[in-house]
Amino acid sequence: MDRVHTLCRRTFALQNLKRIVAQTQVSRTPVVVQARCMGGHHTPDHWKPIKQVVKEQKNHMDFMPVPEGSWQESFNKTQQKRNLMLAAGALCFGITYTICLYKTGCLELHAYTDFSQFKYKTNGSNEGAASSSSEEVQEDNSNNNAAATPDKGQGDAGESGAAGGIEPDLKDLPEVPQHAQYLLIGAGTATFGAFRAIKSKDPTAKILVIGEESVVPYMRPPLSKELWFNDNKEEVDSLQFKQWNGKKRSIFYEPKEFFADPRTLNTLEKGGIALLTGRKVVKVDASKKKVWLASGETLTYDKCLIATGGKPRNIPVLAKADPEVQKRTVLFRNVEDFKSLDRMTQASESIAIVGGGFLGSELACALGKRGKDTGLRVYQLFPEKGNMGRVLPEYLSKWTTRKVENEGVTVLPNHTVSGASFKDGKVVIATKEGGSVCVDGVVAAVGLEPNIELAQASGLEVDPVNGGYLVNAELEARRDLWVAGDAACFYDMKLGRRRVEHHDHAVVSGRLAGENMTGAAKPYWHQSMFWSDLGPEVGYEAIGIVDSSLPTVAVFAKSTEQDTPKAVVEKTGESLRSETENTASPAPLRTPPPSSPLDSEDYGKGIVFYLNKSKVVVGILLWNTFNKMSIARQVLKDGAKNEDLYEVAKLFDIYDTQSEQSAAGES
Amino acid sequence: MSYCKEEGKDQVIFASKDDMVLPSKAIINLEEDEEDQQPGLILANGDINWDCPCLGGMATGPCGTEFRSAFSCFHYSQAEPKGSDCYDAFLTMQQCMGQYPELYPPAKEQVSEELDQLASASATEDDLAQIPGETPQLQTSEEEKS
């Protein structure tokens, strides 16, 4: 079976082969394979022999290219082309790279300042005598500051013209610089403290101050104090006050000329402090270090301080009152408020002050004194039991009210304002207790609201209890962003978290923030103080937490002629009480000669200690006791927890035996 | 005689002079820390305290750098008499101040007199206070004076 099968297969294969050979012989076409596959069919007519196809397609050696001309020549041609392309590429790269370097600031073209310095030196060496060249030097310098008129510079050689070409024109510069090395938001006392500290530590600092008010930074205490006691009208109009010793002083910390032009700030080689007035910052981005102004501009900063202070509060009764009442109401805070109250009191017969705190009581005394001359009737209404009722212990507060009344003020304690209406050209203020006063004008002195408008837009934390921006012990809210003054709720390592609304605190915290902005990393440690005078017989200074809700221990002595606020300023020649501190000295720890016995129980002069729950001294009030603040500061630091406060009071030498002794020693 | 009365949470002591002048038994350190000391113009280590309020706006104003170099030169001057090598520094300061007549009211005669004094080398530190037109109250510390 196997054999038969194999044989059959062989036969079949042989037959196939024979057929293929036969076909090949017949067709002889180039497409042999196809023909073979197609079996016995005819080849199509248009098919061509392979040789012809090869010829037509030039697919053989005859048609290979043959080199002609000089090889070197053609090589050079190609190379030239490529070299050109390389050169163009290199040029293109070079230009781009230079632009990049310039834009990133790696490369600096000739700055005009360097240029004129070069000139300054040649001038000096050519002319020899320093005095003769000084005028030209000044001219060049003023050119530097971009403040000179163009005519001035053209008097010089052509070089100065070239320098002028590079120099940016003042008009072309934006009013708001694009960047500020130090940006201080708010132009009040805290900012003043900050820029002084920054400049002291970093002499060439470029500081930009942005303030909402139209004037240069000024101090507020005289607005409710000394300015009212200056009889010279011209001086008052120019906001100058007389110190008790007769020395004149302006409320402005620095004159206008002190501040640089914000437009040229970043071109000043020595740096400077520029002031941008009438502008408001609406947002701070602490991550991008960028601020937005209400007027639309933006700028970046390296270090930023928020010192926006506060705005005066009002009571709803007055805020919603008749427009005629509102027209006659002053919320007292700034220079404009001072001016309008000054005008108002000159034209009025009577005025009511709502509020019994520092501001209300100081203004009451000031206006009361004015009333003694002009017949102005002054009323003061407040819900507390006496003046400064939230600060002074009750007995002292009531005693103070009697002193304020001596100044010609009709004080209405325990009166809460419940209504204000306008009748017959007068404002009628009614109280819950059933009282009413009829006046020409009203002053609302009911506290301060910290300016924290920036917080929400900027994502900054606000203290829920004390108000104000929440900052750490170094007054820092975010990296490279600090807050100082009234608007800062800071962590006091000694007394805990608090917010303070006083002049000296603005100075102290502003200075601390300024130092920290230059890298000091100091915590709040130096306690600020505050002071107030209510008429000629009451003056006090205080430090720490001075709150009438705390238990107090007071040690009083009899008041003498030398214990009035007038006397202390006369003696030290300082106008602001916070500046007299340096002259303080501790009491001697030895026994002075015997003296006359106490013959009064008046609260004329003494020390009040404020204690917390654990009997630690957290605040000290120096009542008609002056130049003892440094002692108070040390007692506060110690806390005097296990001390007899009567013994501690001895340290303050309230009878001034030390000065008596030294006077005796001198004579 | 001292006596005491209580008014609610508030305690009041009226102390007689006789009692108050007795030595205090309180143990409280009255020495100020370094942080709390408000240094004068010259720091304990002899350096100048540019933050001293006594300088007013001199060290921070538009001629602050010039003022600083002039005053430093004078303060650290080893020349005999002191400051006689600081003529250039003071001249630079004066030139700067000349650009701000509002800020530094020109008391030119006085200034040039002072400069002459410096040049002729007869200045003391007290004179320095009068060189700027503004006459800041320069207060030298006790050590500096002695």
TrEMBL record, chain A:
Annotated region (Disordered), positions in chain: 123-171, 564-598
All copies of domain Mitochondrial apoptosis-inducing factor C-terminal, residue ranges: 513-638
Composition bias (Low complexity) maps to: 123-135
Q: Where is the Deltamethrin resistance protein prag01 domain?
A: 64-110
Coiled coil (residue ranges): none
- Its domain of life reads Eukaryota
Q: In this protein, which residues make up the domain named FAD/NAD(P)-binding? A: 181-509
Q: What are the protein's UniProt keywords?
A: Apoptosis, FAD, Flavoprotein, Membrane, Mitochondrion, NAD, Oxidoreductase, Transit peptide, Transmembrane, Transmembrane helix
The family classification in the record reads: Belongs to the FAD-dependent oxidoreductase family.
Q: Transmembrane residues, as ranges?
A: 84-104
Can you name this protein?
A: Apoptosis-inducing factor 1, mitochondrial isoform X1
The subcellular location is: Mitochondrion
Q: Does the keyword Mitochondrion apply?
A: yes
Automatic annotation (TrEMBL), chain B:
User: Cross-referenced InterPro entries, in alphabetical order?
Assistant: CHCHD4 (IPR039289)
Subcellular localization: Mitochondrion
Record's keyword terms, sorted:
Disulfide bond, Mitochondrion, Oxidoreductase, Protein transport, Redox-active center, Translocation, Transport
User: Domain of life, per the record?
Assistant: Eukaryota
- Outline the segment boundaries, as ranges, of region: Disordered: 107-146
Q: Which PANTHER family match?
A: COILED-COIL-HELIX-COILED-COIL-HELIX DOMAIN CONTAINING 4
Its recorded name reads Mitochondrial intermembrane space import and assembly protein 40-B
